Amino acid sequence: MKREAKREARRKTRQETRPKTTMHQRVGVGIVGVFVVSAIVSIAIADITGSKHDFSPLGWSQNEICKPCHTPHNADTSIEAPLWNHTQTTAVYELYASPTLSGDIQQPGPASKLCLSCHDGTVALDSYGENAGDHYIYGQTLIGTDLSNDHPVGIKWEHRGVGSNCLDCHNIRPGPGEDPMVSILPFFEDARIECATCHEPHNKLGIEGMLRMSNDGSALCFHCHDPK
Ligand code: HEC
Ligand code: HEC
Ligand code: HEC
Ligand code: HEC
Ligand code: HEC
């Protein structure tokens, strides 16, 4: 209930702070700039089971799948995530930079911090609930605190480099109650890209790399980039 109220309040704030659509008039279509935080949908347990996020076979997980990340009780409500159980990272990150980058880049947003709380290697994987934890991520999935060599996160969406594939993301004539954004990839607060823009942490879709869409033929990249 409380969470719903919070979400409603956030939705309102977004609507209020949404820039008035000047470009909107210019392109002359009924696109409304609203972004979507993925809706609550049921999780098919079968998909996370056996995925890289199924830690139940590992000794430290007490044979639980959800618990390293969520708890039904005593969740940390200071963290913006559903019933969150894992200790949050406090790291400060080195950000991606380049002479051609034009968007506003900031420290990773709350959604990315959920991931970095294991993937930056500063917090133990088993630091959740009552556990202090002493198992750390290693190998290829350790992203670290230097994000300068990773695809930018905490970056605000810009239409730069996008071609005519507007319909990949926008519903030009939304009916009543229809979402004007139809992107398979969700954008977060302030239209920023975070880890879960490209990834789905429950492996719901069963796509390699726990991606939200297949990157075969670089399809994922083309959803946002149209290099010409
Ligand atoms: C490795 C961490 C991790 C594990 C394990 C995990 N989740 Fe999640 N879960 C997340 C994150 C991160 C989010 C927020 C997703 C976002 O921001 O889009 C989330 C969101 C959710 C949500 C709300 C949004 C949605 O995607 O539906 C539900 C419900 C949920 N998880 C249930 C579960 C259940 C049930 C399990 C165990 C079967 C589980 N999760 C296991 C990380 C995890
Ligand atoms: C959800 C949309 C989205 C997806 C998907 C996406 N990108 Fe990006 N990418 C962006 C945005 C936004 C920027 C920042 C561009 C800017 O502000 O100049 C960016 C930045 C970049 C940059 C740095 C550009 C520079 O000027 O330094 C590269 C390279 C890049 N992306 C490649 C990729 C590749 C390769 C993929 C596929 C694996 C991909 N992107 C997927 C949105 C996306
Ligand atoms: C509780 C700790 C934890 C959290 C939280 C977590 N991860 Fe992971 N993740 C891991 C570990 C550990 C592995 C590597 C497991 C292995 O190699 O067996 C992994 C693997 C992955 C992989 C590799 C998948 C593959 O099939 O190769 C991706 C992608 C990934 N995580 C993305 C994310 C994203 C995105 C989030 C946030 C939405 C997230 N993770 C949150 C611990 C976590
Ligand atoms: C990869 C997804 C994506 C594609 C493709 C895309 N947009 Fe957008 N668009 C967005 C996002 C995200 C926003 C920001 C929504 C917000 O601020 O809440 C946005 C906002 C807008 C807005 C509202 C004004 C503004 O700038 O905030 C207009 C108008 C717009 N887009 C037009 C277009 C047109 C025209 C095209 C095709 C040339 C296009 N978009 C292609 C993602 C996309
Ligand atoms: C723009 C899209 C995009 C964003 C944003 C993104 N990833 Fe990925 N990620 C990918 C793709 C595509 C792959 C698969 C790479 C491959 O197979 O070569 C991947 C692979 C991974 C892997 C597997 C290890 C590896 O190097 O192949 C992990 C772990 C991971 N991502 C975690 C994260 C985390 C944590 C974040 C946020 C800090 C994040 N990703 C943000 C697209 C993205």
Structure description:
The protein has 228 residues and is mainly α. Helix content is 20%, strand content 2%. The chain has helices spanning 2-17, 22-27, 45-48, 110-119, 195-198, 219-224, and strands at 155-156, 192-193. Strands 1-2 form a two-stranded antiparallel ribbon. The longest helix is centred in the N-terminal third of the chain and has 16 residues, at 2-17. It is globular and about 50 Å long. The structure holds heme C (5 copies).
Distance between the termini: 48 Å
Oligomerization category of the chains in this entry: single chain
Strand order of the largest sheet: 1-2
**Spatial extent as radius of gyration:** 19 Å
Bound molecules: heme C
What is the arithmetic mean of pLDDT?
82
Shape: globular
How many strands?
2
As a percent range, the share of strand residues is under 5%
Structural class: mainly alpha
Question: Low-confidence parts lasting 5 or more residues at pLDDT below 50?
Answer: 9-41
Structure annotation, total helices? 6
Strand and helix order: HHHHEEHH
Percentage of residues in helical conformation: 10-25%
Major sheet: 2 strands, antiparallel
Features:
single chain; mainly alpha; two-stranded antiparallel ribbon; globular; binds heme C
Spell out the blueprint of helices and strands.
Blueprint: H1 2-17, H2 22-27, H3 45-48, H4 110-119, E1 155-156, E2 192-193, H5 195-198, H6 219-224
Antiparallel strand pairs: 1-2
Bound molecules: heme C (5 copies).
